[in-house]
Amino acid sequence: MKKTWLCWILMAAMLLSGMAFAEAPADVDTVVEVSGGSISGAVNDGIYTYLGIPYAAARERFVRAEPVEPWEGVRACTAYGAMSPQVSFMGTSDGQDNNCQNLNLWTPALNDGGKRPVMVWLHGGGFSSGTANEPQTDGRNLAAKENVVVVSVNHRLGAAAYLNLSAYGEKYKDSANAGIWDIIDALQWIQDNIATFGGDPGNVTLFGQSGGGAKILTLMATPYAAGLFHKGIIQSGATDTVGPVLTDAEVSKRITELTLAQLNITADNIEDIQTIPFEDIHTAGAQALQQVAEEYQIVSPFGGGYSYEWEPVVEGDFLPTNPVTEDGFAEAGRDIPILIGSNLNEWTVMMGGMNADAAMSEEDALAGLRERYGEDAEAVLAAFKAAYPNEAVVNALYTDAMIRTPILRITAHKADQGGANVYSYLFTYGAPMCYHGAEIPYAFANATDNSDIVDEMSGVWASFARTGEPSAEGVPTWEPYTREDGATMILGAQPELVHNHDLELLNLLQPGFEY
Predict the structure, then answer these.
(1) Please, which residues bridge with residue 153 across strands?
(2) Interatomic CA distance for residues 304 and 256, integer angstroms
(3) Domain 1-184+246-316 has what CATH class?
(4) Rounded distance between C-alpha atoms, residue 260 and residue 165, angstroms
């Protein structure tokens, strides 16, 4: 499994270990008509809640999902639905199914013509793991606080989503990007049904963290998603090898060749792929990914050798290009404004910072920097203090460049395109524990430790969804990003708009960095 996404997976595992699947009592007043038939939900704190609504049905593996079969009576949507087959969490694969095309929805009202902004959450976990059913992404508080409709989407992942069997018959022509096709089917369901839930199908914003952000970039690169969403919020959604760039068709074919060889499957018995246990497919796929990484010398962003993971495939039709090209940005995303950024200390946990001393002296910080950067330590500390004068010096030890630099590259290329605006942010609240994913509960208005940060984050996210411009009380006027002025909003205890503030620091942390 690709080391790049280890933190995503570990975090998701911790979250899922506390996930509740218990049903809430159905309420007759929640019955509505959707594609397929009638459903009921529940009302929680004045917010109508529907869990596990089917938006499509994957009746076979590695084949694009089909419309749901209509049902009779009222279908109770009061419990989370299945998640995609994936590497088991906490020793269990309970709740996993190839037919995982379901979504969760929270709304303040039904059938009122409210035309509320629709915010569609795409979960993290790279393209290989995760679920829309995480407690921290429950959309009730965000829907209530900001008067928006919140939707979260389950879809296929990993081998189930991206094993490219297109050479094995027309039936499998969509297999290389089945997981993204699932999301497109969910977005089409939203277009067809969201008005029933008080939402505006003409104002749909995707927001996603980590792999969820990379999925948004992918959707911005395919013409098949045109018109299905109108804005994107990308939270820490890139590394150098995932997000800006995806899997080349040649590499994809090699991964498939090696995976099938491990499974003793050929063109003559290809239909055996429908019944082989997914655990065996995961194992064979992991071996194939590692061999491909070594053959093509795909360097792990964490260092220590080569690694690769499942990703969508750039095959010329569904995905004509990578989201970020050598000198531009995918044409399909030209008219979609984005809000994009990352966290100051993305990898605090993995860098041994769980017990970091927020009051560390400058002398001790410098000693730690010398261990990492040698003779550049003093320059790194000086550049950090210039870039982040309001942050404790301990953060110089845990300042992220691995995600910040590809995010900056995406931001600059999108701005250079001359299409819709791009807005840049850096989340710093809680540093040095401003780790990967730390912003999520604040964006969802689910955090309880600081109401000001909750108001700022959820307010900015919702205002961008509403108007395409990020704003909130207590946050300065936000300028669109350009390569020349590099306007970036620091979202923390003291929100501040800065300009090209960290380029010197990034060039020290990642020598030769270009964007």
Answers:
(1) 103
(2) 25
(3) alpha beta
(4) 10
Q: Are 492 and 388 in contact (CB under 8 A)?
A: no
Helix ranges, 220-248 (H): none
Query: Which helix or strand (DSSP H or E) is residue 111 part of?
Result: none
What percent of the chain is modeled with pLDDT above 90? 85
Cα–Cα nearest to 30, from 19, 12, 18, 44? 44
Q: Is residue 495 a contact partner of residue 489, using CB atoms and an 8 Å limit?
A: yes
From the candidates 210, 236, 342, 424, give the one annotated as an active-site residue: 210
For tokens 């995932």, name the residue: 242
Q: Which of 219, 288, 299 is nearest to 253 (CA)?
A: 288
The label of the residue with tokens 């194939």 reads: 288
Q: Do 1 and 286 meet the contact criterion of CB atoms below 8 Å apart?
A: yes
- Give dist(CA 350, CA 357) in Å, integer: 16
Whole-number Cα distances in Å, 144 to 105, 141, 340: 12, 5, 24
Mean pLDDT of the region 2-12: 39
The Cα 352–Cα 364 span in angstroms is: 15
108: preceding bond cis by omega (within 30 degrees): no
Give the helix ranges, DSSP H, for 58-148. Answer: 140-146
Q: Tell me if residue 88 is catalytic.
A: no
Please give the C-alpha separations between residue 51 and each of 65, 75, 106, 248, in angstroms, as whole numbers: 19, 11, 9, 36
> How far apart (Å, rounded) are the C-alpha atoms in residues 496 and 389?
11
The residue behind tokens 């569609």 is 120
Q: What's the whole-model pTM score?
A: 0.94
Going across the sheet that includes 422-427, the strands are 42-44, 47-54, 102-107, 149-153, 116-122, 199-209, 231-235, 338-343, 422-427, 487-491, 496-499
pLDDT tens-digit readout, 256-313: 999 999 999 999 999 999 999 999 999 999 999 999 999 999 988 776 799 999 999 9
Which of these, 108, 205, 215, 107, lies nearest to 161 by C-alpha position?
215
Q: CB–CB of 125/8 below 8 Å?
A: yes
Tracing tokens 């189930």 back to the chain, one arrives at 160
Please provide the DSSP assignment of 294-337 as one string.
Answer: HHTT-B-TTSSSB------EE-SSSS-S-SEETTEE-GGGTT--
Looking at residue 349, the DSSP 8-state letter turns out to be T
- Are 404 and 466 in contact by the 8 Å Cβ rule? The answer is no
Q: How far apart are CA 27 and CA 76, in angstroms?
A: 9
Cβ within 8 Å of residue 14, ≥6 positions away: none
Report domain extents, the chain.
1-184+246-316
If you average pLDDT over residues 8-28, what whole number do you get?
A: 39
What does the block give as tokens for 448?
A: 């309880």
